[in-house]
Automatic annotation (TrEMBL):
Database matches in InterPro entries: GTP_Pyrophosphokinase (IPR052366), NT_sf (IPR043519), RelA_SpoT (IPR007685)
CDD domains: NT_Rel-Spo_like
Pathway linked to the protein: Purine metabolism; ppGpp biosynthesis; ppGpp from GTP: step 1/2
Record SUPFAM superfamilies: Nucleotidyltransferase (SSF81301)
BP terms from Gene Ontology: guanosine tetraphosphate biosynthetic process
Gene3D superfamilies membership: Beta Polymerase, domain 2, Nucleotidyltransferase
Annotated RelA/SpoT domain residues: 74-197
Pfam families: RelA_SpoT
Organism superkingdom: Bacteria
Protein name according to UniProt: (P)ppGpp synthetase
Length: 237
């Protein structure tokens, strides 16, 4: 059985990658309607959160004469991945278990131009009184061993339906363009089954070096931008 999802609206300066069709695994067939409703709700939570980001981006572009957000990507986790994650954790295979235990079913990735944009966006989100911060992991200040860098937030946002309001969790990843490019290569490495252990280790070591170079480049680019702004500050009309 397939579940069709309404596509999210998008602005011309945003790219949104959200799957449009969900295949229900056998585990959820008895509760297909409830599962369809849950996926719809997560999709709506993404739409609500994207709107917040678009508003912030428009405001900051007016203030700073540039767009701090280059791109927004969004996705709802695939049913197969949901089932596999619940099984790995030894959790019940139910919609209630899915909603209570998984924080990354709805995911939004925010691609910024500079490192300071990441922290400015995150601070603005934290100040919004209808956004509840559940957890924060700063992999920029404390990168993973493989070199991965990104700023992660788990948030809850209210979504208003016809007769109710529901707080829904969204995983947010905020990173620079360079960090996102690196992460895509690292993701490919993890899922290339044909690589043997030695090949994977060698490529992993090369990627770690690249991650360090990218981090240094991000810092240098930020420094250059700040020098330009010091000499030529933005003039508000």
């Amino acid at each position: 059985m397939n579940i069709a999802q309404n596509p999210n609206s998008e602005l011309s300066h945003f790219a949104v990658n959200t799957p449009q069709v969900f295949e229900i695994p056998e585990t959820f067939r008895e509760t297909a309607r409830q599962f369809q409703e849950a996926m719809m709700q997560y999709s709506c939570a993404i739409r609500e959160f994207k709107t917040k980001l678009e508003v912030l981006n428009d405001e900051l572009s007016m203030r700073n004469a540039r767009n701090p957000i280059e791109m927004i990507k969004a996705r709802v986790k695939k049913p197969k991945s949901i089932v596999e994650k619940l099984q790995r954790r030894g959790l019940p295979l139910s919609i209630e278990s899915m909603e209570s235990n998984l924080d990354d079913i709805a995911g939004v990735r925010v691609i910024c131009s500079f490192v300071d944009d990441i922290y400015e966006i995150s601070r603005m989100l934290e100040r919004q009184d209808d956004v509840t911060i559940i957890a924060i992991k700063d992999y920029i200040k404390a990168p993973k061993e493989n070199g991965y860098r990104s700023y992660h937030m788990i948030v809850e946002v209210p979504v208003f339906f016809s007769s109710s309001k529901k707080n829904i969790r969204v995983e947010v990843q905020i990173r620079t363009i360079a960090m996102d490019f690196w992460a895509s290569l690292d993701h490919q490495l993890k899922y290339k089954k044909q690589l043997d252990a030695q090949e994977a280790a060698e490529i992993g070591a090369e990627l770690k070096k690249c991650a360090d170079v990218i981090a240094e480049t991000d810092c240098k680019m930020l420094s250059i931008r700040q020098k330009i702004e010091e000499k030529h500050p933005t003039q508000e009309e």
